[in-house]
Specification:
Helix content is 33%, strand content 34%. It is of the alpha+beta class. The chain is globular.
Amino acid sequence: INANTDSSLLKNIEDKSNLYRRIFNEHFKLRQDQYLAYDNRNIKLEDTLQTDFGWNMNIPWGWIKIKTNKDSNFVWIGKEMPFQWIGISYTDGDIVSEMNSLDIGQFIWDWPEKFYKTVRFNNYKFILDEMPFNGSIAWRAKGVWETINKIDAKGGPFCSYLFYDKTSNKTYYINYLIHHPGNNKSIYMRKLDLMIKTFSTKI
């Protein structure tokens, strides 16, 4: 981007803001596709989760298994520098169609204490809406998480999706969160969102 004067430059940016945003998003996705490419992935972990739980997701190197529980259909993986978690659980059948928005909100609200045990969601900036997700319509929640133990206080942004998958006849809940105090978290959150959107139950 160039211009003869500062005012011309600012006007150019304002007039073409949507174009520049689209170009940035396209290039960002291309870079992340390389990040999620086969050679840069933890294939061993991917194969283990696919065998044990029947779903697949592109998982980059550096991510490790924190906990899995076949009885509760729960998978928890994580990465450091910065601190990032992804949690995935599922229930047989379509429970989403049986719930109203209040039930959905309560399900999402209760989930971290039930599965992570040590964290919970905060009311601050909590948003619940519906969004497309890999060919389905998902309930999406966004907001702030925090540790229950205030002595070891941590927190940061989170995002969750709850959706019914026709292929497997299961309802999936996927959560991701980050702890990166004093630093910009938006790029990491976008990376996490691209990562979880490689989730698939098609073998």
